[in-house]
Structure formats: structure tokens, C-alpha cells
Queue: 4 jobs
Job 1
Amino acid sequence: MPKFVARFKTKAQVKVWHQKWDVLEYEDEKGISEYATRFKKIYKRVDPHKSTPIRTIIRKFINSLPPKYVELLTIMGPVTLEKAIEAAIDIVKLPSVSLGVQVLTFLTALESQILNR
């Protein structure tokens, strides 16, 4: 956020940013890249000092996506917002039928890793 905006923001502006943050959701017709851009822009205004835990930010990003992507992203467990965005972009590119196969393959590999520890 520009220093000027941060210094002279009003309570009304902050309220509007929080309202936008609360209703922010992915829209199919706009695409994941545009959603990620809007998400980061609003996040910077809502939390300019980055005091919100990163897990909370990632959860907000993931939970604003369609349910079919939420499950896979939750399982993948990205640890940064950028990783969550990259993973979401990759998942959105997958055809719907392939998504089920990808999930099954991922879960099988994960189970194998857990059992081999």
C-alpha cells in the first residue's frame, strides 16, 4: 500500500476494504489470476502490517474458491500464499475428469509417504 494511502486512510475507507475482504470470492468468468490479484490487493489494504497469521490468509484464499478445488488445496497444504496461488492455477487448468484421478494419485502417494516413515 502506498505510504500516502496508509497514512491518510479514513475509518470509512478501512470499513470498505474490510467489507470487500469479507465478500471476496473467486468468479469463474474472471479466472484465478485475476482473483489472486484482487485478493492480494485487498489483503494489503486490510492488513498493511501483515499481522494476520499466514495460515489464516491462505485459508481465506482457499476457502473462497469453488468447493471442488478447496478439498485438493487443503490436502496439498501450501505454506505460502504464492504457493497456494500457483497450486490453484495448476488445479484450475486440469479438466474436471482428470481432477479426480489427480486427487486419487496424490492421496495414494501421500499415504505411501506416511507409511514409509
Job 2
Amino acid sequence: MVFEYLSQIFEEDALQFDIEDPKRIEIHAVYRIPVFGFKDDVNVILNEKGGKTVVFIRSASRVGEYDLGVNKRRVRKIFNKLQTKIKN
């Protein structure tokens, strides 16, 4: 269920996304910054244990040393959307 919700989120928001390793449930998505067009990478790993799913999300800029908080906000947005989909 979590995998399907994350796939929906990335279909709506990401420039592109791929399932890197379906056995491990790993997703890679690319986001584009609207103003400058820079691409950022988002990696998600789902770890299922004991009937629960733990979600690890990493967002990183490809260019530059500081992102002005864009990646942190993106991860929060993904988690918030995921939480909303799970509750509904």
C-alpha cells in the first residue's frame, strides 16, 4: 500500500521516477527546481518488518553546496502527502 501511494506522489510531482530494486523496494525520483531548472535526486527505501513499513527518504541537490532548505521541505511534503493518503 505504501509503495503504491509513493508511486502516485512521484507520478504527480516528480520529473521522472524509477523502481531501482523491486526486491528491496527502492525508488529513485528526479525533481526539477522550477526557477533554475536544476535537478534534485530523491531516493526512497521501504523496509517492511513485522507488519509495519519504515520509509527512508533522502533528497539531495545535484548542483551546489547549499539548497536553501528545498530538500528538507521536499521530504516533509512527500511524508505529509503519504500520511494523507494513508489516512484516507
Job 3
Amino acid sequence: MFSINKAASVFPINESYLSFLRYIVAGVIALGVHLSVLIFLVELFGVAKPLASTAGLLASLPVNYLFQHFYVFRAKGRIITNFSKYLMLTAATAILNAVLMWLMTTRTSIPYPAAQIMITATIFVINFFGNRAFTFGGGERGLEEIKK
């Protein structure tokens, strides 16, 4: 079975890149949860797309957090402390997600699942660096790591 860590032992990879690869794996899994809830709510119950998108994001939260804490960043801090920081960052990006979903579904003809994937790609980058520096990296120490 393929493992990012096994690949890193064969092909030397900087830990920063390795954590980003793990972040991609975790993100794809969380996106699957997000999109499943979004499509389920819109198609079966007629829920407004921005609201359904927000519900999908909320459903993916615990999955994404646990992957990030234990697998991506291998955090050493307390779970509850890191989760509080994670929620702060996620609240900001959840608002951004809802606003972008509203704009893309009311102002363009882009299908809502494609819009969600584009929005997620944008937020993905913001969240990686934010979580690495703030949530799991320990503030200034984490910011210094990014600059290397």
C-alpha cells in the first residue's frame, strides 16, 4: 500500500513538503465529506446552496481537524487548545466560503459542485499556512518555520 512516509524514505523530501502532501490527502477526504453533505442537502431537501455548503463544511470539521492534528502536523499540544485555535481560523474561512458560494452561484453560471471545489482550493491554501503557523505551529515559532 502506498504511504507518503514510505515515499519520503525513498525520495528525500523536506518535512514542510511532506506535511503539505499529508495535508492534501486529509483535505481530499474532508472535501469528500463536505461535497457529500452539500449535494445531499441541495438535491434531496432543496436547501439553499450557501447554507448547504456551510453545513458540509461543519460536517467535515471533525474529520479534517483529527487528520490535521494527528497525521498532517503531528501536533504535540493539547487537543482542546489546538481545537479552539482551529475553530477560530475555520470560522473566518467558513464566512469566506459562504460569501464566495453565494457570489459564485448567484452571479455566475458555474455549477455549485464545481464552485465549491474552486472555493475549497482557495481556502485550502489559507488554511494550510494558518493552521501550520497558528493552530499547530505555536504562533511566532510557526511563522518562522514558514519563512524557512
Job 4
Amino acid sequence: MLSNSVKYKMNNKVSRSTSNISNTSKPGNSLMQNYGSTTVIYIVSFLAIGIAIIYLYKFYKSFQLASASTNANLFPDCPDYWDSIGKGVCRNVNFLGSCAQTPGSNTVDFSGTLFTNVNTGNYAKCKWSQGCNMSWSGIDRVC
């Protein structure tokens, strides 16, 4: 038979070894042990700031497009230095821009549905003016 002191020492060793195993295998501590709490906080903060910046940029662009379409009467009917020869029809009398070199392109009809759409008309005019290297007061800031 074993003495009481030997039994006590054996039980103590067994309990210490099981407590060491249970401390290292706790779920949920692996992320904090690998990276540290400040690193995790930095990563989460940068992700939140990045998402906020993307959301604000999209909100700004939609606001800019909406304000341009609601204030359509604030923009001139024709590009800068062009003459208006009818409702929505403009003539390039000074042969400005890169589209002036194409024969027959000095008169443009902006009264079509592409250019008069409430939501995208000014955007289409902006893209057209950029494609022809033309300035158009107010319109050229839409896109």
C-alpha cells in the first residue's frame, strides 16, 4: 500500500497536468494569443473606416447626380461657344473640339431621349462633351 503522502503527491501531479491541458485548449483564445488585442482592434477599425469612406463616396456621387438632374434648367442648352438654332439643336460655329473635324458633326440635336432623360440626360451630355473635348458650363462637372 502507498502511504498518504505518496498518494497526495500523485494526485497533485495529475491535477496540475490536466489543468495545464485545459488552459491551452480553451476555444476563443487563439485569435487573441496569435495577434494580440490591439492588432485586432486596429484591423477592425481600418475596415470600418474603409467601409464608411466607400459609403460616403457613393452617397456623394448619387447626390451630385440627383442635384444635377433636378437643376437641369440651370445649365445652358448648348456647349460653350455654340449657337442654339432650335429647341435642343446646337451648331458649332467656331469649329471647336475634336468632333469638329468629322464632316457633318457641327450640328447636334440634344433633344433626343438620351439627352433629355431626367435621371441620366445631363450625364450623357457630360460624356458627349468629354468625348469631343468640349467645355459645357455646369454639365462638364456632372461626370
